[in-house]
Design brief:
This protein has helices at about 15-30, 70-80, 95-105, 120-130, 155-165; strands spanning about 5-10, 45-50, 55-65, 65-70, 110-115, 145-150, 170-175, 180, 185-189. The chain contains five helices and nine strands; from the N terminus they run βαβββααβαβαβββ. It has about 190 residues and is α/β, with parallel strands linked by helices. Helix 3 (about 95-105) crosses helix 5 (about 155-165). Residues about 1-10 and about 15-40 have low confidence and may be disordered. A hairpin with a 2-residue loop joins strand 3 (about 55-65) and strand 4 (about 65-70).
Length: about 190
């Protein structure tokens, strides 16, 4: 999936008249026989991501009506790959939801700049050797972490919003100008 073009996600499929009638009929039937008709989660979740190292973008729906959109997940996995080695791994769905909720908490539609997503053990060792604060058992190795910034959002506001979600680790790298977020244990530094 290499390329510089803007990667567009897919929208929720249009629900046809037949689908609506069949669903309504099923609900009426279950109600008539005493069954409980529960609707699953509806709607969509969007992300706008940008990798400044590779100049790649994703802007689209990654979750629709209770299901993660596989095509979008593949594009996001590619964008958040270990670009040092072009190694791709599945990015944890909880991390995608965290990024979605974070942009919602900040009330921004700007792209999340992903400075680092998934990392191989070799890249993690290289970063440690170069003097970066790469933890030996980093959540990046599991596709559960991202080092991010958002244009126009002050670092202290990004940090505060990430902490408010109480969804995992939050590390603030003031000198380097980014916030680390992960879906591991709740902690901060």
């Amino acid at each position: 999936m290499p390329g510089n073009a803007t990667e567009r996600g897919v929208a929720c499929p249009n629900v046809g008249r037949r689908h609506v009638l069949c669903t309504a009929g099923s609900i009426m039937f279950l109600t008539a026989i005493g069954g409980i008709a529960r609707a699953g989660p509806r709607g969509e979740r969007r992300l706008s991501l940008y990798n400044p190292h590779t100049d790649e973008r994703f802007n689209g729906v990654y979750w629709c009506d209770g299901t993660y959109v596989e095509q979008s997940r593949k594009r996001i996995n590619w964008l958040m790959r270990d670009f040092h080695r072009d190694a791709v791994a599945p990015i944890d769905a909880d991390l995608l939801d965290l990024l979605h909720h974070l942009t919602g908490a900040l009330e921004t539609e700007r792209s999340v700049n992903v400075l680092s997503g998934f990392r191989t053990a070799a890249t993690n060792r290289l970063l440690q050797h170069e003097g970066h604060n790469a933890a030996a058992h980093s959540e990046h190795l599991l596709g559960k972490a991202a080092d991010i910034r958002i244009g126009g959002v002050r670092l202290k506001h990004l940090r505060r919003a990430a902490l408010s979600l109480n969804a995992g680790g939050v590390g603030t790298y003031w000198r380097d100008g980014f916030v680390h977020v992960d879906v591991g244990p709740v902690r901060n530094w």
